[in-house]
Specification:
- Chains A, E: Pfam families: BPD_transp_1.
- Chains A, E: InterPro entries: AA_ABC_Transporter_Permease, MetI-like, MetI-like_sf.
- Chains A, E: The chain crosses the membrane at residues 39-60, 72-96, 102-125, 166-188, 208-229.
- The complex is a heteropentamer, with two copies of chain A (239 residues), two copies of chain B (248 residues) and one copy of chain C (257 residues).
- By secondary structure, chain A is mainly alpha-helical.
- Chain A has one domain: Orthogonal Bundle (MetI-like fold), CATH 1.10.3720.
- Chain A has nine helices and no strands.
- Chain A has helices spanning 3-24, 26-61, 70-85, 88-103, 109-133, 137-145, 150-181, 192-201, 206-233.
- Chain B is built from eight helices and ten strands.
- Chain C is 33% helix and 24% strand.
- Chain C has helices at residues 3-13, 29-42, 57-63, 75-85, 125-137, 173-177, 189-192, 227-236, 239-249, and strands spanning 19-24, 46-51, 69-73, 89-98, 101-103, 118-122, 142-143, 156-158, 164-168, 182-187, 204-205, 215-220, 253-255.
- In chain C, α2 packs antiparallel against α9 (239-249).
- The chains are: A mainly alpha (239), B alpha/beta (248), C alpha/beta (257).
- Chains in contact: A-B, A-C, A-E, B-D, C-E, D-E.
- The A-B interface holds A 138-139, 141-142, 144-149, 152, 156-157, 160-161, 163-164, 234-239 and B 57, 59, 82-87, 89, 91, 93, 95, 97, 99-102, 110-111, 113-114, 139-142.
- The structure holds adenosine-5'-triphosphate (2 copies) and magnesium ion (2 copies).
- One magnesium ion (MG) is lined by residues 49-50 of chain B.
Chain lengths: 239, 248, 257, 248, 239
């Protein structure tokens, strides 16, 4: 057997191996994708249900906002800054008692969503605040002149005008959450990132690791693409 | 009827410490605007025109003195009652202030929605009044300046307010569009009998359409004049023709 | 085969380089290295501790010649690394062993554990295999033939009690112990001590204590005989280290030399 | 001398697919602007005024036809030579386009810096010319509209360009500031003998200061007229006084 | 001894303990702060030296930019997206051969700066692109009308006008880097985050962990405060 043939076989062999190892892990990989989906879904739900009102409240209560309340603002702003600065791993561990109190368990994919949700809420709240600040002052003034209540100001004026920015920042938060969720294996959350680390990195199955990373890159780009597309579609500000 | 009694308005200056201090935007203004009149407010930049207007619907509170609209002092109302009162005063802004993500129709429908009213008819009627019925479903970015301002006027009128406040409603517009908008305001006054307060630095505009006008100078009211209407303009078929005749 | 490693070794022999770099992971391993460092210092060696917070990097560093030895793993784990990376790492001396086992808050005996119960095992490959092997040994599950200590959950062939797996970080296992519906929790004595338990309290202990899983001092095979590594080995197996293990960790660790 | 020969300019419309297509901003324009004249360009919004101006310093390339400045066709120059040529043509924008983070002085010095020239004297001289020497070290945010535009004019003139292009230089200004700026432009023309092209939709402004004017209508040149200057305005001591007299 | 006294002693005892354990760790804590400083310093240097030009280039070469070049843009944009989506731990590991080739070693604080630098460059490049997009179109037009070269456009027009945004986004990148650096213990990088994890998570010295987290929160808030203050100071756009 010549050296060339051996090399050729080597390459084929490696490809076969790659295929084999990937198909061997197909089930688990699909499961880990589902887990990431659950974690993202839950934390984004929290971002929308809690982060959006929280960011809106920050916008309203800040110093030059429509309804300045220094105390409220300091509190919310503090929350956002603290969640942003504590090392995420420690944050996850510190939350274990809380998660257990809330869900009855502190391990597994659902439980892993709790710390992710805290972070998603904080990040999205900050983005919402910033996005609303970009709405022209005149829009607030218009709402005032039409006798709108605070609730109406928010739902009828600010959100419709800021909607494309709100979608775009939710996209950014989603992508950050993909990256945060990588750590959630620590409390049994699973997910794609954890899969890549455990099945690829720790057991030296590099094909699995690279395949998984590729999937993540594709997923992130798809999320970004979808977000950008949606936000353009609903933006009528300039054509 | 709108009455300003000894009204003063000062702002804390926006500057940093060194240049900080009070800006006296309005000083001791006494003024009565009658029902159903078109009342002009003229003055240089910074003379206090916008401040005066914004006091009327209480977007700003007076520093001292009282502002009465139909005998009611907005400063003394609860926030809720004040909102209700504001809904009876329409406002047209210099920069139109249309919501970019809503169609012309939805922009006009907005004040009704705030009162939980859904009156398609009424909205279309107003759009028709300002001659914009056929553009009802376009977004503002596709409209010209004059068209935008007409939509803004329809929005201000849709709740049938007794008073219409206009802050430089034509200064973002060219001559052509200015005429368009002023024609509509004239019509509002004739047909809807709305009291109109018109702030402008363009003397031509005020002269052409107001009954009386207040002249402001650095926060003080220097005069309230009865306006003498100018001779009607010649009618031209196009801007280009008019330009040519005017320049030569 | 690493050039860098070779030159480091030679420098040691010529007496110019008296620094020994040892990679380690976390306590108590790092503490052991520090005790040994003091011992080696008496003979003029400087032991430099390289802390890495990960279970793969200490082997990478060693194989790549960036450190001279490491102290963080047991032999099977090292062999798995050798096999996958064509590395030639060699276990020099077992230093201590830990009695791993399964703990339960709610049950005193495995027999009481109901079918369908949750079992918490670590989520890193090496400990996962070890945990499953214990369950296999006690007949709670059976693993595919030949997986030995390297089984993954996917290798569980029979699971008569329908055990449900909960995989968490090694360091969160003691937290899992406090969980309401987790029946069995794998753990190291060091970590279970956090909830006030010792191996005495375990409901299942590893039976085949053949020192396979003793934590080993490891170096590159070609350096095993070098003066530097010999000196390190002496220090690591010194009385001082033994005393340290006995005094500070007698409840959880057994010296293996 | 500026010559436009059979110049056409079309844009791809910004709309999405459905509404896409060509917009013909200028169609077959032939025009000669003489040295040292003040030349007006008037027309409705969208008639192509800005496009015409931007062709002269080649901020836009013509779709067909030729634009010659002093006999040179900018389209045929290398990017480097074109940049050099552009530096000989000053431009004043409607929105001033001052750099907000630079002082008035630094804004005026900017064109010199681009040519690696550091001439404090020259900068102060220009600021003096527009009567802004005492505000040299203030940032634009502290200046009024008229003051900003004066700084912008100083900046356009500091390199001593032969041609000054002005795109609606007064439409962001009120009457008072408009006069201020137009006075300066008149002075530029008299004292520096600069060729000035003035785009405006305000007929008064063009009538008051231009020698000739082109009238555009939907991209076509409908006329080039010699402008007859209006009788000089009465001088008033203040805007308020003038307003009062004018309205009554 | 009464129960109360015992309790009192207990509290005092704990305080003493806290003080003692903190002072015992003082040296290591200071060192870990220094390590974080080194990692931040290096990666921010890279962000400024490489991320700034890269983001500028993205701004210039994008579809409607001053000098559209689809290929260049796709390349740079791809880099940014990939670095953003690969799980950071795996990214660090994948870079080891590169780091060794570059620095001769792949562990320790300096080496740990390499992967951080890659991320910092990518994040800052994206921010720079976005910030420059906020500069009004008219500024570019002004530069054109004055015959400015591309280099002059960037240095004389874009950067001066965007400077407060550039500072603010560097601040945000810095804070992200604090959080990324937490992971660098994996390759022996050390740092405050790793310190907190080692002593808090791995050895249950909760006092040390909380003290460290507190330090991190303070540091992050200080960075944010400094960034906001500076960016306001150099912003003359509105007063
Ligand atoms: N919110 C505010 N804070 C501080 N000063 C203000 C504020 N609003 C207005 N001013 C100042 O009050 C004075 C009057 O302002 P006002 O807007 O009423 O003038 P104006 O006549 O409408 O001017 P313009 O024609 O420029 O719109 C000005 O000096 C202005 O700078
Ligand atoms: N970059 C562009 N892309 C597409 N269409 C354009 C562009 N610039 C101008 N147009 C179109 O070309 C036509 C002429 O525009 P131009 O700006 O020259 O008009 P103008 O006379 O200056 O109008 P205005 O008084 O509103 O400034 C308009 O229909 C405009 O929509
Ligand atoms: Mg005003
Ligand atoms: Mg124009």
């Amino acid at each position: 057997m010549s050296g060339q043939e051996a090399a050729g076989q080597g390459v084929l062999g490696r490809l076969d191996e790659l295929g084999a190892s990937l198909s061997a892990y197909r089930g688990e990989m699909l499961q880990s994708i589902a887990e990431t989906g659950v974690m993202l879904g839950n934390s984004l739900l929290a971002a929308v249900l809690l982060g959006l009102p929280m960011g809106t409240w920050m916008y309203l209560s800040r110093k030059n906002g429509p309804q300045p309340r220094t105390g409220v603002y300091a509190l919310l702003n503090g929350y956002v800054n603290v969640v942003r600065s504590v090392p995420f791993l420690l944050f996850v561990v510190a939350l274990i008692p809380f998660t257990r109190w809330m869900l009855g368990t502190s391990f597994g994919t659902t439980a892993a969503s709790v710390p992710l949700a805290f972070v998603a809420v904080a990040l999205y709240a900050r983005w919402v605040e910033q996005t609303l600040l970009d709405v022209p002052r005149q829009t607030v003034e218009l709402a005032d002149s039409l006798g709108a209540s605070t609730l109406q100001l928010v739902t009828r004026f600010l959100y419709p005008e800021a909607r494309s920015g709100l979608v775009l920042s939710l996209t950014t938060v989603t992508i950050s959450m993909v990256s945060y969720s990588t750590i959630m294996g620590v409390v049994g959350g699973g997910g794609v990132g954890d899969f890549a680390i455990r099945y690829g990195y720790q057991t030296y199955e590099y094909e699995v690791m690279y395949a998984t990373i590729l999937i993540m890159i594709v997923v992130v780009m798809a999320i970004q693409g979808l977000g950008t597309w949606t936000s353009r579609r609903i933006d009528r500000r300039l054509r | 009827m709108i009455e300003l009694q000894q009204v003063t308005k000062s702002y804390r200056s926006r500057g940093t410490g060194r240049r900080g201090g009070e800006v006296h935007a309005l000083r001791g203004i006494d003024l009565t605007i009658r029902d159903e009149e078109m009342f002009g407010v003229v003055g240089e930049s910074g003379s206090g025109k916008s401040s005066l207007l914004r006091l009327i619907n209480h977007l700003e509170a007076p520093t001292s003195g009282r502002v009465l609209v139909d005998g009611v002092d907005l400063a003394r109302l609860s926030p809720r009652a004040r909102r209700a009162q504001r809904r009876r005063i329409g406002m047209v802004f210099q920069q139109f202030n249309l919501l970019a993500n809503k169609t012309a129709f939805d922009n006009v429908a907005l004040p009704l929605r705030l009162q939980r009213r859904r009156e398609r008819e009424r909205v279309m009627q107003m759009l028709d009044f300002v001659n914009m019925a056929d553009r009802a479903h376009q977004h503002p970015s596709l409209l010209s300046g004059g068209e935008k301002q007409r939509v803004a006027i329809a929005r201000a009128l849709v709740t049938d307010p007794g008073i219409l406040l206009c802050d430089e409603p034509t200064s973002a517009l060219d001559d052509h569009h200015t005429e368009e908008v002023m024609d509509i305001l004239g019509q509002v006054r004739r047909e809807l009998r709305t009291t109109i307060v018109l702030v402008s630095h363009e003397l031509d505009v005020v002269k052409a359409s107001c009954d009386r006008a207040a002249v402001l100078e650095r926060g003080r009211l220097t005069a309230v004049t009865d306006v003498v209407a100018p001779p009607p303009r010649e009618a031209y078929s196009s801007y280009a023709e008019r330009a040519q005749r005017y320049l030569a | 085969a690493s050039d860098a490693g070779g030159s480091a070794g030679e420098a040691g022999e010529t007496g110019e380089d008296t620094t020994i770099r040892v990679a380690s992971h976390m306590t108590p391993m790092t503490d052991v290295v520090e005790v040994a460092a003091d011992v080696a210092a008496e003979d003029g060696w400087t032991v430099e501790l390289v802390q890495v917070n990960d279970n793969v990097q200490y082997n990478r560093l060693l194989a790549d010649g960036e450190v001279d030895a490491n102290f963080a793993q047991h032999e099977p784990y090292m062999e798995a690394f050798n096999a996958e990376h064509d590395a030639e790492l060699q276990a020099l001396a077992p230093i201590y062993d830990a009695k791993v086992g399964f703990y339960s808050r709610d049950y005193d005996d495995v027999a009481e554990v109901p079918d369908g119960a949750k079992v918490a095992i670590p989520n890193d490959a090496s400990n996962e295999g070890r945990a499953l092997a214990i369950l296999d040994e006690h007949g709670l599950i059976s693993l595919a033939d030949g997986v030995g200590f390297e089984g993954r959950i996917a290798d569980v062939e029979e699971n008569p009690h329908d055990l449900e797996w909960v995989q968490v970080d090694l360091l969160n296992l003691s937290s899992a112990y406090e969980e309401d519906d987790v029946a069995l929790v794998y753990n190291y004595p060091t970590y279970i001590a956090r909830v006030g338990l010792t191996p005495e309290d375990a409901v299942l202990l590893e039976e085949t204590v053949d020192q396979r899983f003793a934590i080993q001092l490891v170096s590159r095979a070609e350096d095993a005989e070098s003066e530097k590594i010999q000196a390190l080995e002496r220090a690591m197996t010194s009385d001082e280290v033994r005393d340290f293990l006995v005094e500070e960790h007698s409840e959880t660790l057994l010296p293996s030399f």
